[in-house]
């Protein structure tokens, strides 16, 4: 009881609440601006936290992280420009909804799913951290390899009408991802001696180019000016609709928690896995990709489910699961604290005060998010002839800002052209993105596995985790084949 | 006569121009900095180099006015370094936080258009962080000698957060000196590399002190040796590689993650000495001295020509190691 009062004393300060509120607000705004990611915001906010109390400092950064994770979805839905990589999946259904004049419904779905997922993720962090951390430590290269294999099967669900076209796009994504220096031997691959390509193709310019730029091109090349529906007039999300999504949200959150607890996989993969699972299990699976709120819910639950869970390996093991938690680790160290088991022994009060703050941040996200929707949805009311040049400006700025590199602007425009060609030829862009993200992880882990086993392939079947993901991969492929076969029969019968 | 007049005028003109340029450079020296100083960080925001740079910039502002930190990542720091070497507008107010990548980059990236030693003005090494040779708690090896003996007869794996990092190159150097069968397993960042080490999937790593220190203290990793010539105050009982591996030719083994401020070699002398003075003051400040232990770091020693000499040795060392490790350029 004495400890409890100590925790409250430490947590219940105005500074902490201000830090959370400011953090979430900054996160939402920065997350919504294409090219400005939560990672950059957290990195740039770090020096400001040097002089703050440790709990306040960490909560500010965590607030930005969480806000940014949600903020990315706003522009993904409204202008098909994912504000952050993890929101790329949200636009698959979010943008079609906005085009149908249901932007508000999509934004609310994204917000509520994000908040629920965030809460579930936080609860997992508080109650199951040590258990999940153990699983994370059992994830070696062979386990990652099978997880990636399973993740690759989601290409089937995001391929749109044609799996073959989806596989072509994914293959192209893998080829683009292989540009750079070989991770083991350092030999050059498709770099053409350009230093800008030696560190691989930058993700943000690719993301902006692939999704946002084609919209701009489409607007200026199509002869028919699209009819603009205003967002503000769109109906909001009903309770019944959200209830329908709840199962998907919980499933997505749990996927996010597991992916988040394993270092190095990331929110983008979690969003796509969650989306794929939702589509597989939904009675409205044929509506996915055409404006299905369940699709938005799945994507957002997946990526926000990661946010709390990435803190699990950080706090319990001292291992940062992604770039943001690596920065937060830096913040801990600046304050002379060491995340890991020692932190729980020596600074338990502080850890629980942090947990309180992290829980409060979910509620703050709901409030700030609601306010943000009110103002951001005005974007959908701006005529496209004015909006798109502004979008283009942000795209150019966003692509430049990541590495302060003009080369990246050219790269973004190039991928914009590719995205435009994809649109015109009916190839989905999402598989390209998945190939780009997962391709290197697949290769890296395959090679690492052989390196650590000294070439012995039996390591691929070394334990229950590998078997689990082998089973999931086979089941997922079998299901896809079954669906394909069913559709073929249906098509034959219809004709 | 005409010719004489012409000569006179041209001589006067040249003289005047020279005088003007002298005055101009004197004016630059006296007023330096006449503009905001730009500190280029050759890595992304949020990393160790960024964190250290922002701290140093923050403390230097007391001496030199506003310092703008700018991240320019790419090709293991060589993109930013290449830009600095080319000079251009504002170059007299541009400094860069160099790190091991400055000396390792030329060994890894092909056809760099700059000389890592000649093209720069070396102001001061600010921080030095030792690497620690660590094995998982479950490892059968309890000393450097046991590991070397084992690695002579069978393959031993060592992990790193990426090719060309100081962690990777330390391992390659160790392998080359001891002539053992060590295999490099590259990861992408410490977040991925650390779990593989903790769980025993890889046998050993030469990781940076701040990354592994908490795990050594909690008993999850065993520290076999420190890669710097002197023992670290943070792990006083752990021998240096030099001490523990004398019989294997490891005497003088020295690798570390270091951070130091460099500039274009055209930086005026007066600006160099002002920067050196400012950095000296920063490094004496209580704030900086309190900052160091949080990273298991020690203050850098070399400045000016000593710093240049250090870089020169490093460049040669890594070029040789990269060649022996068969890293493609």
- Radius of gyration of chain A (Å): 22 Å
Taking all Cα atoms into account, the compactness measure Rg of chain B is 23 Å
The top-level CATH class of the largest domain in chain B is Alpha Beta
Q: What low-confidence regions of chain A span 5 or more consecutive residues with pLDDT below 50?
A: none
| Quaternary class | heterodimer
Kindly summarize this structure in a few lines.
Chain A is an all-alpha fold.
What do these coordinates show?
The complex is a heterodimer of chains A (495) and B (329). By secondary structure, chain A is mainly alpha-helical. Chain A has one domain. Chain A is built from 21 helices and two strands. The model of chain A has no long low-confidence stretch (mean pLDDT 86). In chain B, α4 runs parallel beside α12 and α6 crosses α12. Chain B folds into two domains: 164 residues, D-Maltodextrin-Binding Protein, domain 2 (3-Layer(aba) Sandwich); 120 residues, D-Maltodextrin-Binding Protein, domain 2 (3-Layer(aba) Sandwich). The N and C termini of chain B lie far apart (63 Å). In chain B, strands 1, 2, 3, 4, 5, 6, 7, 8, 9 and 10 form a ten-stranded mixed sheet that branches. About 3% of the residues of chain B have low confidence. Chain B contains twelve helices and ten strands. The longest helix of chain B is centred in the first third of the chain and has 30 residues. Chain B is α/β, with parallel strands linked by helices and 329 residues long. Chain B is globular, with a radius of gyration of 23 Å. At the A-B interface, α3, α9, α15 and α20 of A face α2, α3, β6, α7 and α8 of B.
């Amino acid at each position: 009881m004495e400890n409890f009062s100590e925790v409250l004393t430490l947590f219940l300060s105005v500074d902490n609440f201000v830090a959370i509120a400011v953090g979430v607000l900054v996160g939402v705004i920065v997350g919504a601006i294409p090219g400005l990611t939560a990672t950059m915001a957290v990195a740039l906010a770090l020096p400001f936290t040097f002089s703050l109390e440790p709990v306040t400092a960490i909560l500010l950064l965590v607030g930005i992280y969480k806000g940014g994770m949600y903020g990315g979805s706003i522009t993904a839905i409204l202008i098909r420009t994912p504000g952050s990589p993890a929101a790329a999946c949200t636009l698959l259904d979010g943008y079609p909804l906005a085009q149908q004049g249901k932007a508000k419904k999509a934004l609310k779905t994204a917000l509520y799913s994000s908040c629920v997922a965030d809460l579930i993720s936080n609860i997992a962090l508080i109650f199951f951290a040590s258990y999940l951390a153990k699983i994370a430590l059992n994830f070696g290269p062979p386990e990652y390899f099978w997880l990636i294999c399973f993740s690759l099967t989601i290409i089937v669900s995001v391929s749109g009408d044609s799996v073959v076209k989806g596989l072509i796009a994914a293959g192209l994504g893998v080829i683009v991802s292989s540009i750079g220096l070989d991770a083991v031997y350092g030999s050059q691959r498709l770099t053409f001696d350009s230093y800008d390509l030696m560190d691989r193709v930058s993700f943000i310019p690719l993301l902006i180019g692939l999704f946002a730029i084609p919209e701009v091109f489409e607007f200026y090349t199509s002869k028919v000016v699209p009819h603009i529906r205003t967002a503000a007039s769109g109906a909001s999300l009903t309770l019944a609709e959200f209830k329908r999504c709840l199962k998907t949200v919980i499933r997505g959150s749990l996927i996010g928690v597991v992916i988040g607890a394993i270092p190095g996989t990331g929110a983008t993969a979690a969003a796509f896995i969650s989306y794929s699972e939702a589509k597989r299990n939904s009675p409205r699976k044929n509506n996915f990709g055409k404006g299905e709120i369940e699709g938005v819910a799945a994507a957002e639950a997946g990526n926000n489910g990661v946010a709390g869970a990435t803190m699990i390996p950080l706090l319990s093991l001292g291992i940062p699961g992604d770039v943001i938690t690596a920065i937060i680790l830096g913040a801990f160290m600046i304050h002379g604290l060491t995340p890991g088991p020692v932190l729980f022994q020596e600074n338990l009060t502080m850890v629980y005060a942090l947990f309180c703050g992290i829980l409060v941040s979910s509620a703050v996200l709901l409030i700030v998010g609601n306010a943000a929707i009110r103002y951001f949805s005005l974007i959908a009311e701006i005529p496209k002839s004015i909006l798109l040049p502004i979008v283009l400006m942000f795209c150019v700025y966003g692509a430049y800002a990541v590495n302060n590199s003009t080369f990246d602007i050219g790269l973004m425009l190039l991928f914009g052209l590719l995205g435009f060609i994809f649109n015109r030829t009916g190839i989905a862009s999402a598989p390209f993105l998945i190939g780009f993200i997962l391709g290197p992880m697949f290769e890296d882990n395959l090679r690492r596995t052989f390196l650590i086993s000294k070439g012995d392939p039996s390591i691929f079947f070394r334990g229950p985790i590998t078997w689990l993901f082998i089973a999931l991969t086979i089941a997922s492929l079998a299901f896809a084949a079954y669906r394909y076969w069913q559709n073929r029969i249906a098509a034959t019968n219809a004709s | 006569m005409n010719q004489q007049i012409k000569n006179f005028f041209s001589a006067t003109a040249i003289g005047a121009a020279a005088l003007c340029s002298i005055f101009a450079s004197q004016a630059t020296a006296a007023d330096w900095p006449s503009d905001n100083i730009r500190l280029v960080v050759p890595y992304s925001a949020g990393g160790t180099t960024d964190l250290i740079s922002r701290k140093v910039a923050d403390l230097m502002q007391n001496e030199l006015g506003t310092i703008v930190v700018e991240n320019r990542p790419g090709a293991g720091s060589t993109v930013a370094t290449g830009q600095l070497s080319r000079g251009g507008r504002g170059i007299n107010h541009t400094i860069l936080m160099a790190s091991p990548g400055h000396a390792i980059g030329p060994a890894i990236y092909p056809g760099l258009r700059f000389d890592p030693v000649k093209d720069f003005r070396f102001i001061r090494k600010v921080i030095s962080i030792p690497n620690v040779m660590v094995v998982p708690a479950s490892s059968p090896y309890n000393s450097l000698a046991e590991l070397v003996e084992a690695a002579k007869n069978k393959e031993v794996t060592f992990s790193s957060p990426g090719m060309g990092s100081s962690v990777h190159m330390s391992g390659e150097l160790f392998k080359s000196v001891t002539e053992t069968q060590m295999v490099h397993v590259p990861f992408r960042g410490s977040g991925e590399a650390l779990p593989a080490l903790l769980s025993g999937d890889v046998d050993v790593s030469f990781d940076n002190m701040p990354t592994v220190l908490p795990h050594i203290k909690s008993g999850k990793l065993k520290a076999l040796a420190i890669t710097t010539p002197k023992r670290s105050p943070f792990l006083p009982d752990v021998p240096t590689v030099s001490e523990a591996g004398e019989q294997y030719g490891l005497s003088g083994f020295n690798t570390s993650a270091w951070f130091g401020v460099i500039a274009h070699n055209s930086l005026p002398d007066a600006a160099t000495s002002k920067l050196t003075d400012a950095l000296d003051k920063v490094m004496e400040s209580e704030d900086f001295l309190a900052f160091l232990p949080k990273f298991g770091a020690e203050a850098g020693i070399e400045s000016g020509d000593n710093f240049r000499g250090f870089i020169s040795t490093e460049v040669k060392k890594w070029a040789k190691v990269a060649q022996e490790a068969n890293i493609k350029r």
